[in-house]
Specification:
The chain is mostly helical. The chain is 62% helix and 0% strand. It contains 16 helices and no strands. The protein has helices spanning 19-22, 29-36, 38-45, 53-70, 78-89, 101-116, 135-156, 163-173, 176-187, 195-202, 210-221, 223-229, 235-241, 246-271, 279-289, 291-301. Helix 7 runs antiparallel to helix 8 (163-173) and helix 8 packs across helix 11 (210-221).
Length: 309
């Protein structure tokens, strides 16, 4: 597998203490978070010398929340739980905490963290009350997009969906975009949050295929577990479903992934000096490009992706 080099400009970030967040979650969440190692992932993705503690804390809480949501087995109706998440995320991050029992259990702790967190450095990651900062409405909207994609993903289960339909959702469910918001506002805050110009702020030309790269990489590195569990929501599994042999399906997905990585690196190395970017924007692209390396190392070590026999 072709993966970008790790970012060389900063050591791994210090350990993130998630205990205040985990203490607000249902009891079943703690084991899920423990085997998902969100602290390790965030430490690799958010360089210590470039990102404030608040960004790393929110990122780790988001990834924890995402893993709990993904593994939501305690609910009889996961569709209802996802719909409540979407409803809450469609409002303001500064709104009141959800009143519904299911919504409060799943969203209350996460919304509280977003409301009280700050990216101001060297302030503590969270304050004692609601703090209004420019990144929060954008981050909240991107988390809503992830939740909506997870809900749409449920509609695919058991159905005859196409590769195009799957990849359209995969670039969202891989959940890179909320994390990119945190990175962008930490390293190189955009001048505005105008929705029409924001897309180019978090995914400038060299990074336009980054979510797809990360999604395919996740499907490749998680394939052994997906195959054993017969999870149909995987690019490789979809090719097998449509009649391709397992080895060929794996190689084809790997080839596409590698081509996209090489194209991304070529775009950046071939023209970075003539695009008129600020130095901080160049650092942002350099760090984000290395996320393929960070996520690969995390997945290889993560208990969440180990195959149990």
């Amino acid at each position: 597998m072709v993966i970008p080099r790790p970012y060389q400009g900063s050591p791994l970030a210090a350990h993130v203490d998630l205990s205040p967040f985990v203490d607000r979650l249902p009891l079943y969440a703690a084991p899920i978070i423990k085997i998902s190692s969100p602290e390790d992932l965030v430490g690799r993705m958010f360089p210590a010398l470039l990102t404030p503690p608040g960004a790393r804390y929110v990122a780790a809480c988001f990834w924890s929340w995402l893993c709990v949501l993904d593994d939501l087995t305690e609910e009889d109706d996961t569709t209802n739980a996802l719909q409540q998440c979407v409803s809450i995320l469609s409002g303001s991050p500064y709104g009141p905490l959800p009143a519904e029992e299911v919504g409060l259990r799943i969203m209350g702790a996460f919304q509280h963290i977003v409301q009280t967190a700050t990216l101001a450095d060297p302030q503590p990651p969270v304050g004692s009350g609601i703090m209004r900062e420019a990144w929060k409405p954008v981050f909240w909207a991107e988390v809503a997009t992830v939740a909506k994609a997870l809900l749409a993903e449920k509609d695919l289960e058991g159905g005859a969906f196409t590769m195009s339909e799957w990849l359209d959702l995969r670039v969202l469910t891989i959940s890179a975009r909320p994390l990119l918001v945190l990175l962008r506002y930490s390293v190189s805050p955009p001048n505005s949050i105008n929705i029409n110009s924001y897309e180019s702020a978090i995914l400038p030309y060299p990074l336009s295929n980054l979510p797809l790269i990360l999604g395919l990489q996740n499907d490749i590195l998680g394939f052994s577990k997906d195959f054993v569990k017969r999870n149909p929501l995987s690019a490789i599994q979809l090719l097998i479903r449509d009649g391709m042999r397992k080895e060929k399906a794996y190689r084809r997905t790997m080839t596409l992934h590698n081509e996209l990585v090489e194209e991304m690196i070529g775009r950046w190395m071939g023209g970075r000096a003539v695009r008129g970017m600020r130095e901080s924007e160049m650092i942002y692209v350099d760090v984000a490009m290395a996320w393929g390396n960070a996520m690969a190392e995390w997945m290889i070590a993560c208990e969440r992706y180990k195959v149990r026999v």
